[in-house]
Amino acid sequence: MSRNIKASLTIAALGIAALLTLLVLELGQRGAPDSAAETRLTAAIGGPFTLTDQNGARKTDQDFAGRPMLIYFGFTYCPDVCPTALDILGGALEILRDSAPDAYQALQPVFISVDPTRDTPPVMRDYLAYFHPRLIGLTGTQAEIDAVKRVYKIYAARRPQEDENGNYNVDHSSFFYLMDGDNRYLAHFDHAVTPKTLAQGLAQKLAQN
Ligand code: NI
C-alpha cells in the first residue's frame, strides 16, 4: 500500500473509533433522559485550555466565553485532510453568513494545532489566511497541546518517518466540534461533510441552543 492510502486508512480507522465513542455517548444520552447522562456527554468533550493565537496573544477558553466555537484540530503541514476540512469550513461559513447571519456572527471558528513544533504563530497566521478571515488559530507548547488534546478527546500521533527534507506526518482524528457559549459539547460533524450540510447543521444547532 502507498503511504497515502495507509495514512487515509489510519485516519479513517481513527475516525470510526472516535465516532463510535461519540455515538455510544450520544445513545447513552438519548436512552436516558436524566441530567446525569447529559452531564456525562457534555463533560466528555471539551474543557479548559491555555494556548497562543496566530498573533502571539495568549488565549484561554475564558476568552471565548459566551460564544459558540467550531473547533477543528489539525496541522498546517497536513498534505490533504486538513486543507480539505478547512476548505469545507470556509465554504460553510460563507453559506452561514448569508443564510443565518446571527449564527455566523456568534460563531467563532478555531483551528488548534496538533503539531506545535512546526506550527508557530506566524506559520499559523499565513496558513489560515488561505481559508477564512474569521478563523482563529491556536498553538502552544507541547504540554499545552497535549492538555487540550486530552480534554477534547483528540487522537494525534507524529509518525517516526521523515522524508529527505525532514518533513513528517501526524495522524490525527478529524472532526468539527461545535461547542456552546459555555464550552460544552453541542455536536460534531464529520470532516467529509459538504459545506452546505455543515452550514445547515450549524444553523440548526445554534438556533436550538
Ligand atoms: Ni490533517
From TrEMBL:
GO terms for molecular function: metal ion binding. Coiled coil: none annotated. InterPro entries: SCO1/SenC, Thioredoxin-like_sf. Keywords: Copper, Disulfide bond, Metal-binding. The keyword Disulfide bond applies. Disulfide bonds join 78-82. Cu cation binds at residues 78, 82, 172. Gene3D superfamilies: Glutaredoxin (3.40.30.10). It comes from the Bacteria. Pfam families: SCO1-SenC. Belongs to the SCO1/2 family. This is SCO family protein. It comes from PS1 clade bacterium.
